[in-house]
Amino acid sequence: LQRTMALASGWFRSQLRTPAGQQALDYLTSDRGLSLATQETFSLGYAPDCWDGLLKHLQQVEGLPIEVLEAAGLVVPRKGGNGFYDRFRHRVMVPIHDRQGRVIGFGGRSLDGAEPKYLNSPETELFEKGKHLFGLDKAANAIRKDDRAVVVEGYFDVIALHAAGITNAVAAL
Q1: What pTM was computed for the model?
Q2: Phi, psi at residue 57, to the nearest 5°?
Q3: Beta strands 75-77 and 84-86: pairing type?
Q4: CA-CA distance, 163 to 87, in Å (whole number)?
Q5: What is the rounded CA–CA span in Å between residue 160 and residue 101?
Q6: Tens place of pLDDT for every residue, the chain, 173 residues?
Q7: What angle do CA 11, 133, 6 make, to 5 degrees?
Q8: What one-character DSSP code corresponds to residue 78?
Q9: 68 phi, psi to nearest 5 deg
Q10: C-alpha to C-alpha distances, 79 to 56, 114, 137, nearest whole angstrom
């Protein structure tokens, strides 16, 4: 599952630099004011507006079985049980890391007003929302040094604070 999540994160990052990812890149740079360096630090990416882009990549290129993709929370069974589709479509993708920096889940921010505005990974063997803080992998040293943490509401609050030099910020999931 950890390899699957790492491969998915890499694919989402690569999609941000394609023509299809331009709207997401514009959102991150213009609307959110995030530098390319900050985007890289947080491994931000893009889930294309298609039903099976990640599914095809992980199955055909990486050779991963559908059972693993489903267990990772990356694909959803179609109604009627006839195949699967990508959970995340046309969203800015924010990987969620554990304390060791391994990708354990994703938050996807809608780019076209689709609801929900933020779609998160379901709970899996790797990811239990109540047991993790977003950004803790990057904030742990600053929290230890300052002997305090700044707890904020969401992913982009943490990212903006880190970009501004406030590196002891985390968010509840």
Answers
A1: 0.96
A2: -60, -50
A3: antiparallel
A4: 29
A5: 19
A6: 999 999 999 999 999 999 999 999 999 999 999 999 999 999 999 999 999 999 999 999 999 999 999 999 999 999 988 999 999 999 999 999 999 999 999 999 999 999 999 999 999 999 999 999 999 999 999 999 999 999 999 999 999 999 999 999 999 99
A7: 20
A8: P
A9: -70, -40
A10: 19, 20, 37
| Assigned token pair, 93 | 């993708």
Measure the CA–CA gap between 17 and 12, rounded to whole angstroms.
9
Locate 50 and state its tokens: 């298609």
Provide the residue count of the chain. Answer: 173
Tokens describing residue 100: 């060791």
Residue type, 31: D
Structure tokens at 15: 């999609």
Under 8 Å between Cβ of 123 and 143 = no
